[in-house]
Amino acid sequence: QRTAELTRANARLEQEVQDRKEAQTQLRRQSEELARSNADLEQFAYIASHDLQEPLRKIRAFGDRLAGKYHDRLDDRGLDYLERMQSAAGRMQAMINELLTLSRVSTQALPFERTDLRELVREATADLEIRLEQTSGTIAIDPLPAADVDPVQIRQVFANLIGNALKFHREGIPPVVKVYTDPETEPSEEICRICISDNGIGFEEKYLDRIFNPFVRLHGRSEFEGSGIGLAICRKIIERHGGGITARSRPGEGTVFLLTLPRSHRKGEQGEHG
């Protein structure tokens, strides 16, 4: 009986060793795949910042020359064509820059550091000062906790979300944006939940899963400018931090974006790909 028990114990140990070897092999493969993926992203970033941008810069430069030197020789239709060409080139350039930003969330990330989130919101708001004046908008910022974050990336998240709140406002109604901690959750030492609410046009929540995907637009380009990549960047940044992002909304009743972020990270832990 003792021999049989030892035999079974040895079999279990051998199986555990085999399982660990297989897990290590799978982890090594995933690491290699991640390295290849990051290399592909770096290659894309190089192409996007050089090979794709250069033709667009020439299109816009020669368009400017046409508009400046031959403006009087073009009829209304010619000027309209020129304006459309310049506008399309500008949108393409903005889209490439957004894709470049999306690809660099992981490959050019900075280490996490303890940061006052309210200060990041203030900095993001300062960058939106002109848009605030144009829309007669107001922003209220409640006290927010500190957390271990990449300050550049999280500032970008706040700037994107607040910028969207100012952009998607109802006609004739100045936008009102509020940034605060989620009152429906208990205070936690591990997790912070930040809400960014507005009184804008809102959207149907059946589109919630789609809005965080690249190039998804719920409104026509003629209604609202933008590339449709901003929310995808926000989600990738938040997920890199080990958090989550979602939203609550109704058409005509505004939107509330909810961010969940760990307040601390172990030393050396810098996100999924950091």
Task: Write a concise synopsis of the structure shown.
The protein is α+β, with helices and mostly antiparallel strands. Helix content is 54%, strand content 14%. The mean pLDDT is 82.
Describe this structure in words.
There is one protein chain. This protein has 274 residues and is α+β, with helices and mostly antiparallel strands. Helices cover 54% and strands 14% of the residues. The protein contains 8 helices and 7 strands. The protein has helices at residues 2-49, 53-69, 76-107, 117-127, 129-135, 151-167, 208-211, 230-240, and strands at 113-116, 138-141, 146-149, 176-181, 191-197, 244-249, 255-262. The strands form 2 sheets. It has a 5-stranded mixed beta sheet, with helices on one face. A hairpin with a 5-residue loop joins strand 6 (244-249) and strand 7. Helix 3 packs parallel to helix 8 (230-240), helix 4 packs across helix 6 and helix 6 (151-167) runs antiparallel to helix 8 (230-240). The protein is extended and about 100 Å long. The mean pLDDT is 82.
Major sheet characteristics:
5 strands, mixed
| Unreliable residue stretches | none
Q: What is the typical, i.e. mean, pLDDT?
A: 82
Structural classification:
alpha+beta
Q: Total helix count? A: 8
The shape is extended
Strand residue content? 5-15%
- Helix content estimate: 40-55%
Rg, Å, rounded: 25 Å
